[in-house]
Amino acid sequence: MAEEMHFYEPAQGHGLPHDPFNAIVGPRPIGWIATRSSAGVLNLAPYSFFNAFNYTPPLIGFSSIGRKDTLRNIEENGEFVWNLATRPLADAMNASCAPAPPDVDEFALAGLTPLASRIVAVPRLAESPVSFECRRTQIIELQGLNGEGVGSWLVLGEVVGVHIARHLLRDGVYDTAAAAPILRGGGPADYFEIGPESLFRMRRPSYP
Ligand SMILES: Cc1cc2nc3c(=O)[nH]c(=O)nc-3n(C[C@H](O)[C@H](O)[C@H](O)COP(=O)(O)O)c2cc1C
């Protein structure tokens, strides 16, 4: 017999102590996004509604829930840098999510070092072992079923430059676990760290 299921329609509420949505769609990779305002102020913030969407060209995107400084900066100058959030950088990543006013340099706020990028004017994060220099391709306001905007914006960009710390390349192959990336779980505080023990391998089946 099938197990009894908890069912809910999100529009009517979940009927649980905590909304499980983020805990189910998780852990999610974190887009730790650096931007620069038109006034030249550096901005850094984590976005876990983040992922990669295409190989060639490489496209990544994140969702801004509401209009935030990162979104505004990318609207204004079309550039951003994605940085890998790792276990040693977890506290700094968290510090960078403070809702600081637009004139506050969030690299300085989080005790982090901006390093000049190669292609875009936005700096990368010196402490992070991997960074993607990106140029905006699309900004799309998300819509609900009724076709109305929900006040969240999907920001997509093409990766035009990739920086990888050499120690993460083993015989030229990128070692995901060696970077100890952190991912966002559900609830107010859950994160996951990826280590070598999380790895298993499975090849795609051939057909027939
Ligand atoms: C791990 C983590 C993930 C987050 N993910 C998102 C997200 O996907 N979308 C969003 O709008 N805010 C997200 N936030 C909150 C933003 O980081 C926060 O609102 C920040 O102040 C935005 O900065 P900005 O205004 O400089 O862009 C997240 C925060 C943390 C700590």
UniProtKB/TrEMBL annotation:
Name assigned to this protein: Flavin reductase family protein
GO MF annotations, alphabetized: FMN binding; oxidoreductase activity, acting on the CH-NH group of donors, NAD or NADP as acceptor
Pfam families given in the database record: Flavin_Reduct
Matches recorded under PANTHER family: BLR2425 PROTEIN (PTHR43812), FLAVIN REDUCTASE LIKE DOMAIN-CONTAINING PROTEIN (PTHR43812:SF2)
Positions of the Flavin reductase like domain: 25-176
Gene3D superfamilies per the UniProt record, alphabetical: Electron Transport, Fmn-binding Protein, Chain A (2.30.110.10)
Species annotation: Janthinobacterium violaceinigrum
